[in-house]
Write a structure and sequence with these properties.
DNA polymerase, domain 1, 2 strands, 3 helices
């Protein structure tokens, strides 16, 4: 079984975020607005402070997202295999 590639939450477009299970249009927009107003997201837990994001959903989102920190596997839009 292939390892799952994660999407860098600091670089992802709205369209990339919407492809993730559990992220709809409003949630994707909230992530982008949070990122734009607070700067680089260093920990997925920071999203608990963003509007439209239920803190209980963060564990599920962790499976799909990365902050782009060193050592975390990530994927660019060109490498995605959806």
């Amino acid at each position: 079984m292939a390892r799952q590639q994660k999407i860098d939450i600091n670089e992802a477009s709205k369209e990339e975020l919407i492809r993730i299970a559990g992220i709809d249009d409003k949630t994707a927009q909230a992530i982008i607005e949070y990122r734009e107003s607070h700067g680089r997201i260093n920990d997925i837990d920071e999203l608990a402070d963003a509007e439209e994001i239920n803190p209980r959903d963060l564990d599920a989102l962790r499976e799909w997202l990365t902050t782009g920190s060193e050592g975390e596997e990530q994927v660019s839009e060109e490498e995605e295999e959806w």
